Amino acid sequence: MTAKITFDNDQKVFHLTNGSISYLFSVEEGETLSHLYFGKAVKAYHGQLKYPRVDRGFSGNLPGSLDRTYSKDTLPREYSSAGEMDYHEPATIVRQKDGSNALNLKFDSYEVKDGKPALKDLPASYTEDDSEAQTLSVNLKDEKSGLIYTLLYTIFSDFDIIARSVLVKNGGQEAVYLEKVASAQVDFVDRDFDVICLPGAHANERHMQRTPVTFGSQAFESRRGSSSHQMNPFIALVDKKTDEYSGDAYGFELVYSGNHSMALETDQLAQTRVLVGINDYNFSWKLEAGDEFQTPEVLLTYSGEGLNKMSQNFHEVIRERVVRSKFKHQKRPILVNNWEATYFDFDEKKLKPIVDEAKNLGIEMFVLDDGWFGHRNDDNSSLGDWKIFEKKFPKGLGHFADYVHDKGLKFGLWFEPEMISYDSDLYREHPDYLMQVPGRAPSPSRNQYILDLTRPEVVDVMYKQVADILANNGIDYVKWDMNRSLSDIYSVSLPADRQGEVYHRYVLGYYDLMGRLVDQFPDILFEGCSGGGGRFDAGVAYYMPQIWASDNTDAVARLAIQYGTSLAYPPSMMTAHVSAVPNHQTGRKTPFETRGAAAMSAVFGYELDLTKLTDEEKAMVKNQIADYNKVRDLVVNGDFYRLKSPTESNQAAWNFVSKDKKEVFVATFAVLAFAQPYLTKTKLKGLDPEKKYKNEETGEVFYGDELMELGIYDPVVHQDYMAKTYLFKAIN
Ligand code: GLA
């Protein structure tokens, strides 16, 4: 069905629907917006959710009103502000000239348009054709300050997604300071939720955590300047009984790469407020008369069929209408990256045998990681100097790129464009480019510092340096890294009362730099990275179709990381590599096949010294590549189904199904072996029950319903860390 947004003038109710989901809100007394419903589509609304009028002690009423039964403190709201009789955390706080922070945002007007407008300077979901979505803009006005808040809602026809953001315009005469502007608020009544989030750490990202929503406040947030390893900008609210394939699940995902806050508050009446947006920590944005501020976008989804459908809703919209890269549906080249093979200790001579071996084994791209620029032999220097390290490449980088290309391989290169080392020409020439608070020594992290990307001239300098390398050295791929969190937040280019803008302006500078480069080099495949998955978010996906999921390449550790990541992001966005054993992060020795099975469940590659492989291992690489070739389109473009959670048991399992349901790739893992193992089965999901599927390895044939309902026995193997993959193809 097509997306449709209507306003019922009699009831004063907005209804956004696409035939699969509905979102309803109304205009109540005091011209206050009130949230009514978000869930499975309904044909119409006949007023049954008008909020019951009850006199609640200590929840006061509208100014000038004698009606004690109507309070903004209890009414489910659509967008709240400070200074009202609403004691929850508000969606927005604005400091005004007289020192007050009170607003009274009243419904003023609305407009419905086909399609979806772009958000100025920010990544966002998009439409390719106006018929794909409808967008509602609701204008709320605060009379005294003259501020106008435009709440933007887009509902897509083909995705169960509502994209929300807010545009604030200062229509008054005086400058104001925005101290908080959430992108979206949703107030739920009569729900007893669990909340699922994705906390983690460097080399241990995005582990799924499910806890009860409790009375009081809970926040899942980042104050690191980036979306962070520690807490991803995603939460889901689910009913207690919701599991992967049944029950209600609401997903919230911010299309933003900076400080975020996903906050919950459950009040005296057990009503739960969700606020999603830029974190208000050290945030204050000066809005002069006539100026506008656009918040990032949040993607909201509803699934009545459990978590897996919620994830698929996000997978679809991100893959189809957030990622813009021309590579989005393409098979990504199978690469070998030299980081874990050589670290900084390499030169052209040492790399050539790896390239030769890559060619021999069927690998399609060689990626040169950190250490090719300035005079970088360790991580203590040269960030900011994106010039070729001549000692390592005496004939130039182009010469080495030619060598790689002559072998028939593509050539990729690592950058970290947002950083500066003390030991760099850039710092010696422009010490003021390094972000620091005047009079205070800045804190190093990995002995590196942050470039002040709030300054357009700094963005320009980095743009020129990176573009020059990309244009002149035959680069086919870029790995864009960021190896520390922000600190010492200050820009010498901004006055004192604008220092609260630095965090967000940094993100805008990053988007500007990245946007200019990806637009200028559309044929280069860009991969995001931040010490692995420290900036794994939908904002980055808008510019780069894939992101290095974690610096942890251990296959067992990757099970939980990739499983958790799949909650909010498609496998086509995650990159995963087979690396050496003992694993460099965990010391674990896993079988080659298991490392392959984990890496093949995402965008696949290698991260080891190919010249050190035994002949047997080389044969295994060739087989792995042949196997991956059979499923790589499926992994990038198919539907993903989680089957067994690695955090709940000793096993993990998932399967991919092609859109036409003719091909199925299954990966199962058993972490520890037992002397008398209980027998376990894996039941597949998403197949056509009527189709007959042939196991490509054994030739056995089963109906889809058999594979889904009866399942298949997992192998019994007396060895730790085992994996088994299956490829099924429909024969009817
Ligand atoms: C980060 C990345 C690694 C590697 C190093 C290089 O940690 O995640 O893959 O590129 O930087 O310094």
UniProtKB/TrEMBL annotation:
Every copy of the Glycosyl hydrolase family 36 C-terminal domain together lies at 651-728
EC class of the enzyme, as a word:
hydrolase
Q: What is its EC number?
A: 3.2.1.22
Pfam families recorded: Glyco_hydro_36C, Glyco_hydro_36N, Melibiase
Q: Which residues form the Glycosyl hydrolase family 36 N-terminal domain?
A: 32-288
UniProt KW keywords? Glycosidase, Hydrolase
Record carries keyword Hydrolase: yes
Q: Catalyzes what?
A: Hydrolysis of terminal, non-reducing alpha-D-galactose residues in alpha-D-galactosides, including galactose oligosaccharides, galactomannans and galactolipids
Q: What PROSITE patterns does UniProt report for this protein, alphabetically? A: ALPHA_GALACTOSIDASE
- UniProt xrefs under SUPFAM superfamilies: (Trans)glycosidases
Keyword Hydrolase among record annotations: yes
PANTHER family referenced in this protein's UniProt entry, alphabetically: ALPHA-GALACTOSIDASE C-RELATED, GLYCOSIDASE FAMILY 31
Q: What name is this protein filed under? A: Alpha-galactosidase
Organism, by scientific name, is Ligilactobacillus ruminis
